[in-house]
Amino acid sequence: MKIVQIDKSQWTSGIEKLKEAYRVFAPVKNDLFHDFKALEKDEAPDFNFQNTRLSPKSIVYPQSEILFRYSLDRESEEYGILKEDVKEKTPKAVIGIRPCDAYSFILVKRNFDTPEYKDPYWLEEYQKSTFIGMACNNPHPTCFCTSAGSGPFNEEGLDALVVDDGDHYLGKLLTEKGEKLFSAAGWTTEAEASAESRIEELKAEAESKMTSRVGTDNLKNQKMLDLYEAPFWEEIAFSCINCGTCTYVCPTCWCFDIQDETSGKSGVRIRNWDSCMFPLFTLHASGHNPRGNKVDRVRQRFMHKLKYYVDKYDNGIQCTGCGRCVRMCPVNIDIRRVCNMMNSYDPESCVCEVTSA
Amino acid sequence: MQNPYYPYPVRIDEIFTETEDKTLKTFKFVFLDPEDEERFAYQPGQFAELSIPGMGEIPIGIASSPTEKGFVKFTVFKTGKVTNYLHSMKEGDIMGIRGPLGNAFPWETLEGKNIVIIGGGFAFTTLRSSIVHMIDPANREKFKDIHVIYGARSPGMLLYKDELESWAEREDLNMHITVDGTDDPDWKHHTGFVPAVTEQESPNADDDTYAIVCGPPIMIKFTQPVLDNLGFKHDHILMSLENRMKCGIGMCGHCNIGEKLVCKDGPVFTLAQLNEMPKEY
């Protein structure tokens, strides 16, 4: 395992250098919040953040994306025939992504990369991206990544992990893509032999600061219909205003809509993020709606993340513990509480543990 | 990488108005590139996205049978934005078809079995596909007795009227056509609802008998106890579901019922499977 030491000034100049070969995405401060942004020339990122307000999923999976273009000009030979949109080929460098967010792409990839079908748009953007993670030395109180299959120093989904060690960074190279990016940035000074144990020390320290723990061990054993019919959904959904914020900020929410937008005699077929919190999501043309009530939709969101996904892939929950939905929900619905209720539910007695988050 | 969102370009070859209220039309499409027809190899029970640039896409069951070459057919009820527009399109117009999608009826299991097809209203489309497939000279001997019970509100609301009459004359097919009511004194088929006609005409079930049921929810609700009485096991009752869909390939998340996706794991499920799923359809 190669570890390099990067001085803070080298870090900044290296990022600038990367812009020659990559589109560089990094956190920048925007009023009160940090968010990922494609950096302009000489635009400096700001790594003084706990996590970005929005997840970086849009770097691979834009909120709105053109799939095809078409002509509605009846004189044209291309009338009514879709043409694939030409995408930019420049590789992307995602600098400073938190380990939980990098891990989210692994969870989401299971949806877009299946034995039967491959989503070419998602996969091409994912494959051309290099993820340079920034370990979390100070997790937020709403973070529960260590209960969700990830962790503040988790390496899964990363091409390199960078750790802030005071006056310098330690960069742990994990893949060839990561090595290529590091040499392009000029981050090549091998760290001292003690670097590895120093990273382990910082990791243990960060993990000990995690205050939130969520139980997920029993979700797989629960019967799906028992959870579906559990009596707590009305209570959980009571305060929900179906605003969709949770699905919008979630790094693992992948649902989308496809729409045609015509302007004059030409148009585009686009896909947009969609949300299972909205009644229109399931509305039939006949007017019938299988999830017409708020409680159906709230249950769907939690059941999908914490039960359907668990059963389908047998690889943990569809949640990275980033805590965004907990922080952003305007009515304080807390997935940690819901997860504990689902995990501890006993269908015989209809009893579950209720924890206050 | 093959793009599963790309529809094959097709030309509308023929449009036929099926019902007296003109809400159902059958569209016969021809692929602009004949090789696309081979790529679109399908089985009865599958569906496709009809794709109209500028309007959008709509998932519709395939009404033609793989034994019919040179075209594909879809019967479309005029109900939403895309289907309303489709109903206004003309023969010769160009649009797209994306598919085939979904899992089809389980033909390997159905071979060698008695088949009871129960259909109501305009859910008869993939059932037509199945019947045409089974009575094809190359396939008929693969199946034992075939019963078809098909009902509509009135004679004018039946789909595929000419074919129904020709099927009714066949020796190798037991057709039971019914209407809720009619004032036609020459009506020579049944009068009454599908569950009642099923009770009268369906054979008793054994391990070698499968039922395929497609129709409006009310028909399904009242047919189920009849099938139970006839002895159909729930894993011998096949149903085809519909849910709002976008991608058709299991990615967009719209059509899920529990962990199953109607577009990819369905649309065909056994009643035994549905009993284990939430009633979100």
What does this structure look like?
The complex is a heterodimer of chains A (357) and B (281). Chain A is of the alpha/beta class. Chain A has two domains: 3-67 and 87-208, no CATH class; 224-344, no CATH class. Helices cover 30% and strands 19% of the residues of chain A. In chain A, the strands form two sheets. In chain A, strands 1-9-8-7-6-2-3 form a seven-stranded mixed beta sheet, with helices on both faces. Chain A has a four-stranded antiparallel beta sheet with strand order 5-4-11-10, with no helix packed on it. In chain A, helix 1 packs across helix 4. The radius of gyration of chain A is 22 Å and the shape is flat. The model of chain A has no long low-confidence stretch (mean pLDDT 95). Chain B folds into two domains: 8-101, Elongation Factor Tu (Ef-tu), domain 3 (Beta Barrel), CATH 2.40.30; 107-240, Rossmann fold, CATH 3.40.50. Helices cover 23% and strands 30% of the residues of chain B. Chain B contains eight helices and 15 strands. The model of chain B has no long low-confidence stretch (mean pLDDT 96). Chains A and B meet through strand 4, helix 3, helix 6, strand 10 and strand 11 of A and strand 6 and strand 13 of B.
